[in-house]
Design brief:
With 444 residues, the protein is an alpha/beta fold. Helices cover 25% and strands 27% of the residues. It has an eight-stranded parallel barrel, surrounded by six helices. The chain is elongated and about 75 Å long.
């Protein structure tokens, strides 16, 4: 059995090929914009004192979450200034996401900002629930910015079960606002934000799933961000209980990824229900709690140490590379007019964490002497691997204790001339993650 090894952090210095044809000549192209890492914000209404009183039971989350999520209800009636001050000391990343609503006054919203600033937080994100107005948005975006801080982003928030199927359509609607209202607001705002009681997700209340995917895609089609909430609230669904939170929540994450609807920000936020706030994990695996859901998400995005592996397996099945950057350099001589085959394995050694991992390739000093092709299960994925990266998801997700094999074919033309190819392969646990396992291949 192959040994487990640490993940390697690497900042790629090589140029990345843009999207090319299925079989491509190995010539450097302009670089592709680096994907942004997905962020995770965490908040708790009930049982929040358990987080404050037991900081040792959610150490990983409070150190690695991108910030603190809080809404108008907590700020109006539940959280004292001393409570906010305590949270300000617990989070390593002192960012706060404020969910406000159109029923709050401008004066209240300014008080929210002032109180969180007093607790030591910077506020990069806000959202407006129960409607939207440009005046209220602009106030949230610009009030009391810290020195050097850019305007905050402000998102339009709604429950996906309310928007009539998908945000792109105009189906019959029973609420106060129409889909066209939300589309108009999102076009003026900085993106979409969704409420997320997982009881509704479980039964797909009001086509919640397709609606949620559509809200992500609509924001992205406008070049804007999307935010998704994972909440343990059952919303009256009798077939759901908070004991199902972690299972339903992780399925919700995977289903968004599998439907090409990855949000830019996840907020794990408990309201209107009783569920453990801590511990975040037991024996290294996430616990069914709000911090446990965040623990899963952060590990899923950043990678659980010692679990992601990229290596080459020869046709005999013998491992010829370990994927450790700096020592895993595979060199092979290829005669003119011949093709070499590499079986590149992307492996997940974790016992519990799954990855929608991304494989990306960069060429260093390549030229027309070479052409390369990547295939997965017989499908040509060259354009993806050499472009923004190929995502292992849907039927090719890197589930715990599984691997996927990508066939790499490197062909040397019969033409004489410079004949050295360097190919850097990088495997990330999630698109935009700065955790990388890598493998360098040199052909001569």
């Amino acid at each position: 059995m192959r040994h487990m090894k640490p993940l390697i952090r690497l900042i790629a210095a090589a140029a990345i090929l843009a999207a090319l044809a299925c079989s491509v000549n190995a010539q450097p192209q302009k670089t592709t914009k680096t994907a942004q890492r997905v962020e995770v914000y965490v908040g708790v209404a009930d049982n929040h004192m358990d987080q404050i009183n037991r900081p040792d039971q959610w150490t990983y989350v409070r150190r690695n979450a991108d910030g603190f999520y809080i809404n108008f209800i907590e700020l109006d009636s539940m959280y004292s200034q001393s409570t906010l001050d305590a949270y300000g000391k617990l989070f390593t990343n002192k960012n706060a996401f404020i969910e406000s609503d159109m029923n709050s006054s401008t004066e209240k919203e300014q008080g929210y900002v002032d109180r969180l600033h007093k607790a030591g937080f910077t506020i990069p994100y806000t959202s407006l629930n129960y409607g939207w107005s440009k005046e209220r948005q602009d106030g949230l975006k610009s009030y009391a910015l810290k020195p050097g801080q850019k305007q905050r982003l402000c998102f339009v928030q709604d429950g996906p079960w309310n928007i009539g199927g998908t945000i792109f359509e105009n189906k019959a609607y029973n609420g106060v606002f129409s889909n066209s209202d939300y589309r108009s607001w999102v076009r003026q705002a900085d993106g979409t934000s969704t409420d997320g009681p997982l009881g509704f997700w479980l039964i797909d209340q009001g086509s919640m799933k397709s609606a949620s995917y559509s809200m992500v895609k609509f924001a992205h089609s406008l070049g804007k961000k999307s935010v998704l909430m994972l909440c343990p609230y059952g919303a009256g669904v009798t077939s759901y209980t908070p004991a199902m939170y972690l299972n339903v929540g992780t399925n919700c994450v995977r289903e968004h990824e599998d439907n090409d609807a990855d949000p830019d920000i996840w907020d794990v936020f408990e309201y209107a229900t009783s569920i453990d706030a801590v511990p975040e994990q037991k024996e290294g695996a996430p616990h069914n709690s709000t911090t446990g859901m965040a623990y899963y998400l952060i590990k899923h995005i950043k990678g659980d140490p010692n679990t992601l592996d990229l290596y080459d397996t020869a046709d005999s099945g013998k491992t010829t590379g370990e994927g450790v950057f700096g020592s895993s350099i595979l060199t092979r001589s290829i005669a003119p007019g011949k093709t070499a085959h590499y079986a590149i394995s992307a492996a997940n050694l974790s016992s519990w964490c799954d990855y929608a991992a991304v494989l990306k390739a960069s060429l260093i000093g390549a030229n027309k002497v070479w052409s390369i092709k990547f295939k997965l299960a017989g499908k040509d994925i060259t354009q993806d691997v050499l472009g923004g990266g190929y995502k292992f998801y849907q039927s090719h997700r890197l589930n715990p204790q599984t691997s996927q094999t990508v066939d790499l074919y490197i062909t040397r033309s019969a033409t004489k001339g410079h004949a050295k190819l360097e190919l850097l392969l990088e495997l990330r646990p999630h698109n935009g993650s700065d955790t990388v396992d890598s493998l360098r291949i040199i052909a001569k």
